[in-house]
Amino acid sequence: MERIEIGGIAIDTEIAGTSPPLLFLHGGDYVAQNRAFLDRLAARFRVIAPRHPGFGHTPRPAWFRTVHDIAYLYLDLLDRLDLNDTVLVGSSLGGWIALEMAVRSQSRIGRLVLIDSVGVKFGGREEREIADIYALPADEVLARTFADPSLHVPDYSRLDDGEALAIARDREATSLYGWKPYMHDPALVHWLHRITRPALVLWGERDGIVAPSYGERLAAALPNASLENIEAAAHYPHIETPDTVAAAIERFASSN
């Protein structure tokens, strides 16, 4: 883990593998469960995986409070590392961040991969498109998040204090960035036409947090996107089926 400072913000960042560059933006929780997926990607890419400010042990300045702030920070990170033709991959909350980055600047982005992304509001005001994880019972949230929660949810009783604190900070930061309006930017849907780079939308067929129909609408709203569903997976298919998702990204990155 490397700490990179940009504009007074210190970002804990994992860097592994060789070129071409791939920037991975994690979701709101289960960050440690990304390990197998990142290792698989590092065999083919130079993987840069930052921990968002406020998550884990990465500090968050008091003024830093929105997904827009994270997007600008990571655009600066691409500049700092001088990354070009980057494969930008975002999962869930990370997909929202990736979209906000791409509508602002694509100069260092070559391709965009969205894994069960949130961040966009397609329906009307009263239409619920993203499950309210704060209102549902905990067991139901798990059942909506993973096809088989027993395989991927950590045993919290076995974590040390540092790991438990990191998870608590992940959840606190997710609510800070995504609480109001809930897990979306009302204006973002109107700017998706700016994302002209090739995009791949990957979606778990059993996602109960954001239904596959949302993924279809997202792919249709992007000018140059394709959609691929992942079987036997829910909201975090790259955690449940890391080889399948990594292989899809590799095919996409090498396609014309």
Number of H- or I-type helical stretches: 8
Whole-number average pLDDT? 96
From the alpha carbons, calculate the radius of gyration and give it in angstroms. Answer: 17 Å
Globally, the shape reads globular
How much helicity do the residues have? 25-40%
Main sheet record: 8 strands, mixed
List the helices and strands and how they pair.
Layout: E1 2-6, E2 9-16, E3 21-25, H1 35-42, E4 46-50, H2 67-80, E5 86-91, H3 93-104, E6 109-115, H4 138-145, H5 161-178, E7 199-204, H6 212-221, E8 225-230, H7 237-240, H8 242-254
List keywords for this structure.
8-stranded mixed β-sheet; alpha/beta; 256 residues; 8 helices; 19% strand
What does it look like?
With 256 residues, this protein is an alpha/beta fold. It has 8 helices and 8 strands, in the order E-E-E-H-E-H-E-H-E-H-H-E-H-E-H-H. Helix 1 links the parallel strand 3 and strand 4. The longest helix is centred in the middle third of the chain and has 18 residues, at 161-178. The protein is globular and about 45 Å long. The chain starts with a strand and ends with a helix.
